Amino acid sequence: MKALKSDILWHNSTTSETQLWFMDHFRIASRATVVGEDGSPIFVGPPWSIVGASDFNGDGNADILWHNSTSHETQIWFMNNFKIAARPTVVAEDGSPIFVGPPWCIAGAGVFQPNLDLTILAQSAWRYCGKCSAMFFDGYPTKGACLSGGGHQAAGLSFLLPHSRPETPVAQESWRFCHKCNELFFDGYPDKGHCPVGSGHEAAGFNFVLPHDLGGRPVAQANWRYCGKCHAMFFDGFPTKGNCPAGGGHVAAGFNFVLPHDLHNSFVFTTPLKSGGLAALGGWVTLTIQSDGAVRWQGHAHDSGADGYDFSISVIVQTPFGHAVAVAHSGQVGGFFTPGSRDHDWDETYGGQAADFFFEFAFAEFHTNLQYSSDFGSVLTGLVDWAIKFTAGSVAGPVWNSVL
Ligand SMILES: [Zn+2]
Ligand SMILES: [Zn+2]
Ligand SMILES: [Zn+2]
Q1: Whose atoms come closest to the Cα of 136: which ligand?
Q2: Are 133 and 232 in contact, with CB atoms under 8 Å apart?
Q3: What pLDDT score does 383 carry?
Q4: What is the pTM of this model?
Q5: Distance in Å, CA 179 to ligand 3 centroid
């Protein structure tokens, strides 16, 4: 989620003035009295009181939530900076005003159901320049400055570059947009390389954090390299190495970057259920991560043998950026000589917190663990790419982890 700084909302119980402190970290940058639609200060007191503040219309401006202890009306002041833009009464699903009072009270306001735009944490429109081989931002009408003359010329895939997240052993930060040439360059050294426009590159905008050394993926291209001469990111997958402002072609150094492109609406991880030895338990499991953050957990278990099984299956999907989603399921299938269905199916969907780091699943590793015991008493354990053990069956929904 985009990190926004917060400000402080005050209310004076004597004068009924509402005031905002615009903060710069812990220091007040400025303060303003809240004014009405006509620009004049507005004074509201009991039975009205402020019960919360949050961005209700998603315009990036916090709004003020009021409740009337007598009429039980709830009202939102949609704010434009310190001025009220509108103040509608909160209505029910059917559009009629809703009045709720004790024993209920509003205990907080916030974003409980994030509907994040992927571009908040990753920027699209990054392209390969077919003339100089550098990566450049193609989101502006002007195409920067290409060493081969004129602006850069986009060719091939459209990349989506992650930014504003922690560096990890497989993702390097300090990749920046140069506002002079529109190229992507590494800003981690005091020396800013060679800009086609002259002298060094100059950073602007996001701090990109780019995955590297993860191999090619269906939705990510490898062979993007740092040029040790000009400090730009260039594509090293062709025999010719483009045009480097430091002279000749670019020269690769350091990591092999793997850059995401053409992300789909979901990432699907699936594997057959395989039991070890003589056991006759089979089937499949599928974990789907959707771009809205929801996680769908499906499976099918089948017993083709004589005895039945109790089984537990757990799967974990881990991203190289330190996020993971884990789910588990327990069930029972009957055998030829034992009661119960030979088949067991499940299909569950969980609303999710995966939206914040959806694109990371382009690089995720999928691990499963199957444990099962036979009706005849023997305990068997099958192992399929065992990664992290957690107690199967004790997990009601997905487990979300930020650090694993
Ligand atoms: Zn170019
Ligand atoms: Zn530059
Ligand atoms: Zn170069």
Answers
A1: 1
A2: no
A3: 36
A4: 0.55
A5: 17
Query: Which ligand number lies closest to the CA of residue 184?
Result: 2
Give 312-362 as a DSSP string: EEEEEEE-TTS-EEEEEEEEEE--TTSSS-SEEEEEEEE--SGGGGGGGGG
Question: pLDDT below 70 — which residues of the chain?
Answer: 1-4, 58-60, 111-120, 263-264, 276-279, 352-353, 356, 375-404
**Ligand nearest to the CA of residue 201, numbered in listed order:** 2
Domains of the chain by range and CATH?
8-86 (no CATH), 116-260 (no CATH), 266-401 (2.60.40)
pLDDT at 368: 82
Q: Which residues, at least 6 apart from 155, have a Cβ–Cβ distance to it below 8 Å?
A: 127, 128, 129, 130
Do 48 and 68 form a contact (C-beta atoms < 8 A)? yes
Interval between CA 257 and ligand 3 midpoint (Å): 16
Phi, psi of 159 (to 5 degrees): -95, 155
How far apart are the CA of 229 and the centre of ligand 2, in A? Answer: 13
Residue 148 Cα to ligand 2 midpoint, Å, equals 14
242-297: pLDDT as tens digits: 999 999 999 999 999 999 887 667 888 888 887 766 667 888 999 998 877 888 89
